[in-house]
Amino acid sequence: GDSVTQMEGPVTLSEEAFLTINCTYTATGYPSLFWYVQYPGEGLQLLLKATKADDKGSNKGFEATYRKETTSFHLEKGSVQVSDSAVYFCALRDAGGTSYGKLTFGQGTILTVHP
Amino acid sequence: EADIYQTPRYLVIGTGKKITLECSQTMGHDKMYWYQQDPGMELHLIHYSYGVNSTEKGDLSSESTVSRIRTEHFPLTLESARPSHTSQYLCASSENRGSNYGYTFGSGTRLTVV
To answer: Would you state the pLDDT for residue B99?
Structure first.
């Protein structure tokens, strides 16, 4: 069945450091891929998405490229800020897979950025 | 600005009480979902609906029930709350068109059963 695996956290960085959060997936169809962010005490917000192979999603300085050959969708940011501290979720949605079009989430990665 | 609303944001209630968590959306989405989020942050789908009068159980077994009488409204009910129900509950909805679209989430209800 469909599944998403994120790198284990938590991740702690200093301000202006480079961020990578790894995400790999397993899907039987042709999924769309998403990154969501959850700030403390809030629900999830869509950060970026990519709907087909080699697409790059970007938003607020974050980027992720849909790599079909490595089944990956790693999240990157060149220079993190304290305000980026949050929980990040990788997810896939596969209309043709066993999840019947529902979002499948990774386990989440907690990011803490220190000044 | 949120197009999906959850109330209450926080709720502390005694064991054995009946509670209903409200979720409403103004986007006309047919598909709606309830997730339970544990302290480790992982999300578990507990209920979903693909339209009025359609409800299904999710991947995680839950003692809660849901109803979908109107498109915009998807309440979750616990008949008899227990401390094991303490958690964050997130409601979401999605576009009616295909898998290219993600979900829109509400701000969540943090439930504590004492």
So the answer is: 65
- CA–CA separation, A4 and A91 (whole Å): 7
Q: Identify which of A73, A20, A25 has the alpha carbon closest to the alpha carbon of residue A49.
A: A73
Q: Taking the CA of residue A54 as centre, how many other CA atoms within 13 Å lie in the half-sphere pointing to its CB?
A: 0
Report the run of H or E that residue A62 belongs to, with start and end. strand A62-65
Q: Residue A44 and residue B98: Cβ atoms within 8 Å? A: no
Task: Write out residues in chain B with pLDDT < 70, as ranges.
Answer: 1-2, 97-99
Is B25 touching A (CB cutoff 8 A)? no
State which residue of chain A sits closest to B47, comparing Cα positions. Answer: A102
pLDDT digits (tens, 9 = 90+) for A42-97: 899 999 999 999 999 999 999 999 999 999 999 999 999 999 999 999 999 876 65
CB A110 within 8 A of CB A11: yes
Across the interface, whether the CB atoms of B102 and A93 are under 8 A apart is answered yes
* pLDDT at residue A96 in the model: 61
Q: Does A44 touch chain B (CB under 8 A)?
A: yes
Query: Where do we find the tokens 């999603």?
Result: A57
Give the model's pLDDT for residue A103: 87
